[in-house]
Amino acid sequence: MIMSGIKKFLSEAVFYPCSGLDGAPIRFLAKRFPCFVYSDYRIDQESFAVTCKTPGLRGYRVGEIHDLEFRLLFGESWNDIRRHFSFFIRQLPFELKDPFAASAHFERLAGFGDDHGPPSIDLMFVRCEAITTFLSVFSNRDIIPGCLAYIRSGIGFGGNYSEFPQMLALALRSNRAGLPQFMLFDEMGGSPDYGDYLSLTDNYAKIQRWTYETEGYGRGNVTLAKRTYN
């Protein structure tokens, strides 16, 4: 179970704020990272469970989907979270009354080898504001995620507030454990020409770039980069 080894899980995970149910980070990073933490306030619990099964992950079959105790993961109740992180919670376009945390375990199907991906993949999904999730789940444990995925954070028409990239950068820098060693970001996240620009990408050296058909936005690209300082 994830919660029995939560610190190890989080330190090895890709953290994906404003994730929706986008499978791109799993598609490109699963060979490097065995587990993922997605956070998005728009996805309800039923949608998460249904998507894990259909379409799921290519080459994998979802096994168990478990509810995770919110208080255990966040360290306090939802009412306490709303009070302590009121600045971020107030940015949501609606009142979030049903946050949840769940995990899904995927096993690789016969006929797909190591060149396709690891034998298994674990995905944690948290329905909550993303920076609140990072501060509560990672920073409060002094844990750095193995990688940050930053793709289409939804500034403007996506419903996210314009200061989100700056607030996310501050949250990442405030983590006493340091910054993630790796970052996966798209063109908008890595360029000052866009509102989604995350300035921290300037501190990362590019390793690999993929061009692919995005889920709903046409052709796009993502870049994997490594932190250039300790």
Keywords for this structure?
single chain, 230 residues, alpha/beta, Rossmann fold, nine-stranded mixed beta sheet, 9 helices, 9 strands
Give me the Rg, rounded: 17 Å
Sequence of strands across the biggest β-sheet:
3-4-5-2-1-6-7-9-8
Helix content range of the residues, please? 25-40%
The tally of structural domains comes to: 1
Main CATH class: Alpha Beta
Q: What structural class should be given to the helix and strand makeup? A: alpha/beta
Please give the number of β-strands: 9
The biggest beta sheet is recorded as: 9 strands, mixed
Gross geometry? globular
Count, helices: 9
Mean pLDDT: 93
Order of helices and strands: HEHEHEHHHEEHEHEHEE
Name the poorly predicted regions.
none
Distance between the termini: 32 Å
* CATH-scheme architecture: 3-Layer(aba) Sandwich
The CATH topology label is Rossmann fold
Strand proportion? 25-35%
